[in-house]
Description:
By secondary structure, chain A is mainly beta.
Amino acid sequence: MRIDKHPILEFPKKNEVFFMFEGEQVSGYEGDTIASALHALDVKILSYSIKEHRPRGFYCAIGNCASCKMIVNGIPNVKTCITPLTTGMVVERQKNKGVIK
Amino acid sequence: MIHKDLIIIGGGPSGLSAAKTALESGISVLILERSNHLGGQLVKQTHKFFGSKEQYAKTRGYDIAQKLLLDLKHFENLTIKTESTVVGLYSDNVVTVLSADKYERYQAKAIIVAAGASEKFLAFENNDLPGIYGAGAIQTLMNLYGVLPGKEAVMVGSGNIGLIVSYQLIQAGVKVKAIIEASSKIGGYKVHASKIARLGIPILTSTTIKKAIGETKLESIEIVLLDENWKEIEGTSKNIKVDTLCISVGLTPMHQLISMIGAEMKFVSELGGFVPIINEHHQTSINSVFICGDAIGIEEASSAMMEGYLTGLYVSKYLKHEHPEYEKETIKYEKQLSMLRDGPFGSKTKVGLQKLKEGNLHVES
């Protein structure tokens, strides 16, 4: 969900950015991070905890806590809350410590 | 390896301010910033600041960030690297950086650590459910990216950040059902609390969160009343249906880099956690390493900026490249800083700094 009206801020419409999430094509906007684009699509689960496989979303949104880590273009442990979204990115939920292929 | 006179770690209010006075002194400066923008947390702050003109009063946070950047525009001696995370700091003043998947090394005659702070977390059942965020995270999501965290929210913590972000949630169109506060008193400024009260949002004091409820994301929370000894009062549990929970229980200085280099550290609760011991020139026990802003004690951005200007000046003297108006400028900013700390919330910082000065290394409560 995106803000459409705000008393102070303006959010002019930006160009759509298409990317892949869990095998499906979805889209965000220019200026989004991966996490903000997913959140706007109501995707709150970004990864699963390593031992108990509990669902995890982001907590800090500024790259401190690593709760938002995902697999991006095959690379694990990418902090999606500070990684700008770009066209054609392949984003997957991470379920382990991260495996480098 | 690239060499500079001064490396500033962090491009927030404090780091940018330090860069200004350092550059005015004629020394070369490199600013390293982890995110893709400068201005730190100012860029998401839509509220107007308090204080005097020198402290950018009546100006919104994101406009202050623009002003700080404009001040640096004409300096040729300045290099700025964004999306560059400092991963190491060494005693020979080498800074290692991860930038666009490349590992780089820089060396300087002096370092200023202006790494800022991180949000504290709170222990309760299911506190890891998606839908539970730091209040600062909510501010970033809404004000920077224009994305709503959810439909209905509860704020934990009634400090200034908790109050301001609650107000910003309402501005963005989210229903704030309550602000809960474990203490018996509201933590933040009365002017912010009154704004919230006028909108009919209850601020529930002596109340804490017991658990979060939900399968794969937050669906509701259970809150409970506390007695004067911070113990739960039985039979006072209540459920509130929410999809968003904001945690605003304070900040803690980012001490990792400064700990890594082996500076003498101390735990000072008034300053928010572990901080290095410094002298009156913001110099740590490692002579060439200086520190300013939230990294040396949690305060407001106004104080962080004044500390930044001062630390840039102090470094100019340390590098024997003294600012052309060193005395005048130092007196000016020291006065500003002490005025800010004379405010209602400054006493905590003053106590903390006093404890830091005493230098005894035992951990205090």
